[in-house]
Amino acid sequence: MLRIVSDGAADGVTIRISRFGGITRARQVCDLAVEAGLMVIVACIGGAEIIPAAMAHMSLSTPACLRAHTVDFHNRFSVSNAVDFREVRGGRMQTPYAAGLGVASLREQFGAPIPAFDLGGHGA
Questions:
Q1: pTM for the whole thing?
Q2: Which of 58, 75, 101, 111 has a CA between 20 and 30 Å from the CA of residue 95?
Q3: CA dihedral sign of residues 98, 38, 51, 78
Q4: Can you list the positions of beta strands (E) in the chain?
């Protein structure tokens, strides 16, 4: 982002939450883009209800004059991973109102954890 800004290489950016390792780092990059006056699109690969909740919050916390759009992916999934996500109404994604992301995860939908790497037989 710093290079894009210093080079004047873009008028806007797409910030994919998962590419930055989560909402905290993505928010920092988004703040840099906003400070530089770049249009911002908040996106992610998708992920039932949890990721769109994060996308909605991050997008709506971006100043309206620099907010481009986001995409509602959660309706593409046949299995839900959370409840209390506000649906799209009038062409606009609604943010949940509860604490945190505003959704309650359905842990039974996640299954067993998958280790990211092998620790040489010492467990994950």
A1: 0.72
A2: 111
A3: positive
A4: 12-16, 39-43, 82-83, 88-89, 92-93, 104-105
Helix, coil or strand: residue 40: strand
> Whole-number mean pLDDT of the chain?
81
Parallel, antiparallel or unpaired: strands 12-16 and 82-83: unpaired
Bridge partners (DSSP) listed for residue 25: none
Q: Please report which helix (H) or strand (E) contains residue 35, including its range.
A: helix 23-35
- The backbone torsions φ and ψ at residue 119, rounded to the nearest 5 degrees and listed phi first, read -95, 30
Using one digit for the tens of pLDDT, what is the confidence trace for 64-84? 999 987 776 666 666 777 776
CA angle 79, 50, 85 (to 5 degrees): 85
pLDDT tens-digit map of 15-44: 999 888 888 999 999 999 999 999 999 988
